[in-house]
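PROTEIN DATA CARD
Card holder: aspartyl aminopeptidase
Chain length: 130
Origin: Parasponia andersonii
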Amino acid sequence: MAHGVHPNFVDKHEEHHRPVMQKGLVIKHNANQRYATSGVTAFLFKEVGKIHNLPIQEYVVRNDMGCGSTIGPILASGVGIRTVDCGIAQLSMHSVREICGKEDIDYAYQHFKAFYQTFSNIDRKLNVDL
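Structure generated from the sequence above:
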């Protein structure tokens, strides 16, 4: 899941990184590695979406705001698999009344299915200088 922009607290998000419900999966980025997403994994995930015409949003926490984390960085370092932290935009995370958009559930299903169908072909063509 990802923190969607709340209409009463729009200023809590970077201007160009405001995840909205019903607009597709959200790729989460953090320079301090609080999320497992890298430039390469974000590109691969976005490319799958582009090929299958699926909407993607990107989220970067403001520099002056605190940030939670996921288990993604721990899992990625332990197993050595390239990882992208992504999720559906929602309001009221960790509340008893979490809210997300129903269209995003279908987008998630479509994107994950497309990922398994398309990843190998995209990855085969990718050349990354390390």
